[in-house]
Amino acid sequence: MVETPTRVRATGNPLVHAAGAVLRPVQDYHRLAWIWVRAFAQYPASLLLMSLAVTVSVLAQVGAVVIVFGHAGTLAGFTVYEGLMVFGLAASAFGVADMFMGAVERLGSHIRAGSFDAMLVRPVSPLVQLAADEFSPRRLGKVVPALVVLGIALANIDVEWTPGRVLLLPVMMLSGVLICGAIWVATACLQFFVANAREAANSLTYGGQALSEYPLAIYGREIVRSVTYVVPLAFISWQPALLVLDRPDPLGMPEALRHAGPVIAVLACTGAALLWRFGLRHYRSTGS
Amino acid sequence: MRVHAAVYARGLRRHSTYRAALVAGALTNAVFGAINAMVLLAVFAARPEINGYDASDAVTQVFVGQALIAVTMIVNTAPSLDLAERVRGGEVATDLLRPVSLLGWWMAEDLGRATFTFLFRGVPTFCVGLLLFDVVLPGSPVQVVAVLLSAVLATVIGFALRYLCSLSGFWLLDSRGLWTASGLVAPVAAGMLLPLALFPPALADVLRYLPWASMVQIPAEILLGKDSLPGGGAFGGLALQAGWAVALLVFAAWLTGRATRRVVIQGG
C-alpha cells in the first residue's frame, strides 16, 4: 500500500497527482477487497453454497413477479417481460451497490466494538475501509441472476433498439448503482447519531429495493412523488424503464425526469459524501 | 416447572432491554408490509378474486406475516437461536450440566422472547396495517381466542424448527448452511412471499400441509375464517398446527438424546 503515493510524488506532474488523488481510494478499495476475496476463497465449498443460496432467493423473487403478473395480466400497463425488466434493473443496481457498499450498514457495530477507531488511525479513507470490510464475492450470486433476468426481459420486450437507446441503458444502470450506493452511505451515517438505526435504515435500503422491483405507478401518485423528489428511488428502475420503452408517464410526471438519472446520481453521491463528512466530524468514540 | 417459568421471565426481560431496536424493527416490518400489500392490491385490482382470496384477505395475510415474522424468526438466514452458536463454540456443555432438559430450557427462554416481541413488535406492526389498509379483524371472541392460540402454536413450531437447526450443529459442526437453506425455504413455503392462494393450486395444497404454512398461511386463514383450512374450519387448522408442534417437539426431544450421547467436550 506504500508504493502508490511514492510513485505519484516522484513524477511531480500536477495532472498525475490529481489522478492519483482520485484513483487512490479505488486502489485502496481494490486491495482491501482482494484480501477478503482470498480469505473467503479458503472455504470454496462454503462460498459456492452461499452464492447459490443467494441465487435461489433471487429466483424465488423472480417467481413471485411472474406469479403476480400471471394473475394480473398487466400492472400499470406493464406486461410480464416489461415487469421483469423493471425487476432486473432494480435487483442488479441494488445487487452491485450492495456488493461494493453494503458493508457500510455495519457502521454501528464497528462503533460499538471499537473497530471503527482502528479504521480512523490507518492511512486509508475510513469509508473505503468500512465499505471493503468482509467484501464477499458471494453477492455475485445476486447480481448475475438479476442481469440474466434483465437480459431475458430486454430480449422479449417490444422495443426498437436504436444505437442511442443501446448506449443509454448502461448509463442509466450506472446511475442506478450510484444512487443505491448513495442511499446506503446516507442511511449508514444515521448510525453515527443513533446506535441501533441499522434495522430502520434497512427499511430504506432493502425496502427501497422491494419497492423498485415493481412498476412504481402501482403505488399511487403520493408515493411515486416522494420516491422521485425526496429519496430518488424512481431513477433506479422506473424512469429508466419508461425511457427504454418510450412510454408516457402513467402518472403524468414531467418527461424530462427520465433523462435526469445521471444528474440525480451525481447529486445523490455528493449529498451522501457531505453527510458522511458531517457524521465523521461529529463522531465520538465509545471509548471501549 | 418453576425453573421454566423463571427462564421464561428472564427471556422476556432480556429482550425488553432493546427498545430502540424494537421500534426500528416494527418500522421495517410495517414498511415491507405496506409495499407487499400495495403490490397485491394492484393484482387484485386487475382480478378481484384469485382462488377464493380477495384484496382484503391478501392484505390481511401480509400483515399477519409481518406481525409474526420476528416472533417465529423463520425467515432469518443467520442462526437466530443462541443455542446454535453454543453448540459450535462448545458452551453447550454448560447447558447440559443443568438439572433441566436442554429442550425445555431453550423453549422457555425463546417463548419469553417471542411473547415480548409479539406484544411490542407484532401487534404494533399489525395495527399499522389496520390503519393504512382494509385489514380484517376477528369477528367474535371465539375467533380471537382461535387466532391467539394459532399464533402461540406458530411460535412453538418456529422454535422447534430453529432448535432442530441448532442441534444439527452436533453432526455438521457448522450449522449455518442449514440455517441459510431453511431461511430460504420458509418465506416461500409459509405464504410470506405471497399468499399460497396465488400459487398453482396443486402446489399450494401440498405446501399447506407442511410445517412452514402453519406459521403464516394457517394463522391467516383462521383469522379470515376460510373453508380452505384442513377439515373446513378453524378447528382443523388448529389441529394441523398442534399436530406439527407436537411432532416436531417429540422429534426434537429424541434428537436431543441422540446428540448428547455424541457430544465430546475437549479441554478442562
Automatic annotation (TrEMBL), chain B:
What Pfam families does its record include?
ABC2_membrane_6
Does this UniProt record's set of keywords contain Transmembrane helix?
Answer: yes
Q: Keywords in UniProt for this one?
A: Membrane, Transmembrane, Transmembrane helix
* Source domain of life: Bacteria
Q: State which residue ranges cross the membrane.
A: 21-46, 58-78, 118-137, 143-165, 177-199, 234-255
Q: Which PANTHER family match?
A: INTEGRAL MEMBRANE PROTEIN (PTHR36832:SF2), SLR1174 PROTEIN-RELATED (PTHR36832)
Tell me what this protein is called.
Answer: ABC-2 family transporter protein
